[in-house]
Structures are given as structure tokens and as C-alpha cells.
Amino acid sequence: MIKVGVIFGGESVEHEVSIISAVQAMNKLDTEKYEIVPIYITKDGEWYTGTALREMETYKDMELLKRYTKNVVFYKKNNQFVLQNKGLFKKIVNDVDIILPVVHGTNVEDGVLQGYLKTIGVPFVGSNVLASAVAQDKVIQKQVFECTDLPITKYHWFYDSDYNTDGEKVLKEVEKKLTYPMIVKPATLGSSVGISSVENKKELKEAIEDAIKYDSKVVVEEKVSNLTEVNISVLGNYENLKLSEIEEVMTDNSLLTYEDKYVGGSKKQGSKGMASALRKIPATIDANLKKDVCEVAEKAFRAVGLSGVTRIDFLVDKQKKQVYINEINSCPGSLAFYLWEAKDKKFTTLLDEMINIAIKDYKKDQSKVRSFKTNILSGFNGLKGAKGKFGKLK
Predict the structure, then answer these.
(1) All domains in the chain, ordered by first residue
(2) How far apart are CA 332 and CA 126, in angstroms?
(3) pTM confidence score
(4) Is 311 helix (H, G, I), strand (E, B) or coil?
(5) Strand, helix or coil for residue 69
(6) Positions of E strands within the chain
(7) Distances (CA, A) of 295 to 150, 243, 299
(8) 203 φ, ψ to 5°?
């Protein structure tokens, strides 16, 4: 039986969303194939493990959580990937064969966690460091899309320091390049956190000042007229990929909000993550627009070098019959399982395929030459006689 470590939480404004997605996933993993090892990262960066982490009730009281779980560190020891107790008596409390990151946002989805896992050498599900980093940064994404000739809306970006130094100059640059209405976004956040729709200069100023509370980089985009928002999920890697059904996301607001995505109609029952959002599946766009969405999604997935399951969001101008790629979610809320269920692929099957893709990616990566057997340092004497901070090297 394969031991799957499910990592979630983290120092991110999307912390709670990650918990919801992870608990959903853990409850759908095939327990005849996999032993589930929950690994929760708190908002202050501490790692915990224990079966209690599989229940949503556990997260309502952090003191109880800490009482019924173990505070651990994760590292490689004797060719095993182990979780070791951080207490007085250091003890290996569990080990894993592969990691399933179910994480959202800064410090976890953006390549930071993936880099740590890569350094340890543990196989993990999902995109690599570079693809994860690109997928988290809306500005870098757009630059990749431009190089690949994919359709995007007009945009302008800047750093918080640019605005803090000369806010009026930044406002003028935005208004010179773009026309109202506009959308203002923190560049590296997700879940619609810090995003605003603006109609004039006063609202633009307020939206920028809100966005820089969350991020050092801000992107402003022209708003699409006659807007319909549609999403599609892609499963696979650069060699082989599959496309889910296309959804049309519904909202009464001027843009899709955090509440639309994660609260939706579930206020009484509790959030179900992105599954809470109001949507139409399949989307009510014509066949040509659906074809455009599918073609652009495939090109974007390969251009960024994604792997596993992703969700790619699109903006559609129904009147102009124009599709614009909006952004990539390398680890989407609820892992976009609802888009695959619409194609008769159960959540359990989706998770199984994600793990199989990760194993194949890992084996292929291991087959590449990563180091040379020759140790060029064995006869190296280039520093002989050199002096450093602490005197002559011997």
C-alpha cells in the first residue's frame, strides 16, 4: 500500500480554503490503494500530523488540534521520507512514499513548498517549481501567454514601491494605457482576495491601495464587455493531457468574489470549497467558443509546463465571440473535481490518476543525468595559500 502524505494549510490568505480542499481529497482517496497521512502546516509555519486532521471539526479549536496531533519536521533519513516528532524525545512518528500537496496561495502553491519537496527528493503530485511559480504570478503568466500568442486582455503592472513613491504617476500610466472599467488584482494571490472592479480614478486609487496590502506587485486589466466567465480543468503533463467539461460561473457581483467561490449557497451547511460556487455545467457558450477555450487551455498548459490537475479560467466576450485566457490555477480549489464528475470521472479516480502521473514524472526525472560520478574537487588546490576572513586556509 502506498503511503500518501497530504500536505495542506500554510502561511497564506487561502489557508482555510486549502483545509477544505484537503479534507475533501482525503475523504475520497482510495483506502484500498493508499494509506493517508495528513500533514497540516499552521499559519505560523508549524507542521502537524495525525488522523484527527481528517475531520473538519478539528480546526475549530487550535488547542485541541495541537493536543491530538504531533508537531513534526519532514526530511529524508536512510532513503525514507519521515515525519519526526519535535518534542524532547525525537521519534519517527510516520513516513510517506509520495506527497499530495493540496495547497493554495503564497508560500505553498507558488513553488516554495515544491522547492522544499524537490530538495528532499520526495515524489510529489502536481507541477514542478517553475510551473508552480509562474502559475501563481499573474504578471509572469501574462508575459508567457504573450510570448505564446495566446489571447489576453490589455494590462499594466507595477510594484507597490512605484505607487508609494509616486502614486499619481502610476495612476496616469494606467489611465493612459487602459480604459475604464478595469480590474485591479494583487499579482500573486488567488481565491479573488484583494480584487476590485473600478469605474473611475477614485475607485482605481482605492483598489490599488487595497491590493498592495496583500502583495508587492499589482496588475490592472481592462474589463471585458458582455462578460461570461468560464473555466476548464486540464489533467496530465506535457506529453499527454485530458480536458474536463467547461463550466460557466455565475455571480450577481461585478466580478467573481471570494464569497461566490467558497461560500455560495452553503452558508447553513458550511463551505464545500469551489464546489460551493454557483455554476452551469456545461457552459452556455457556442461550439466555436468551446473549441477556442479547449485549444488555448492545451497551449497554456504546455507553455507553462504544468502537471497533475489544473484549472484554467477564461473571460469570454459573447458579443464579439472572443475568448481571453485569464489565469491558471496550478492547484485549484477542490481540485476541480466537479468539472471531471461532469465527464463521469469520479473524484476518487481523478486522485488516482493524479498520483499515477506524479509517479511517472518522478521516474522519468530520475532517469535523467543530474550529477557526475567524477569528483573534480578531489585534486583541486586552487585555494592553496589563500587568505580569508579567518586567516590562511590549510
Answers:
(1) 2-124 (3.40.50.20), 135-139+143-149+225-362 (3.30.470.20), 154-222 (3.30.1490.20)
(2) 11
(3) 0.88
(4) strand
(5) coil
(6) 2-9, 34-41, 47-49, 70-77, 80-85, 92-96, 98-101, 155-159, 182-186, 196-198, 217-222, 227-236, 241-249, 279-280, 308-317, 322-329, 387-388, 391-392
(7) 10, 10, 6
(8) -70, -35
Asked if residue 29 lies in contact with residue 356, where contact means CB atoms within 8 angstroms, the answer is no
Q: Which three cell numbers stand for residue 225?
A: 464587455
User: pLDDT tens digit string along 25-52?
Assistant: 999 999 999 999 999 999 999 999 999 9
* Tens of pLDDT, residues 325-370: 999 999 999 999 999 999 999 999 999 999 999 999 999 999 988 8
- For the residues of 139-170, what is the DSSP string, one character each? HHHHHHHHHTT-----EEEEEHHHHHH-HHHH
The answer to whether 152 touches 145, Cβ cutoff 8 Å, is yes
3-state secondary structure (DSSP) of residue 10: coil
The answer to whether residues 243 and 294 touch, using CB atoms and an 8 Å cutoff, is yes
CA–CA dist 362, 210 (Å, integer) = 41
Which amino acid is located at 64 in the chain? L
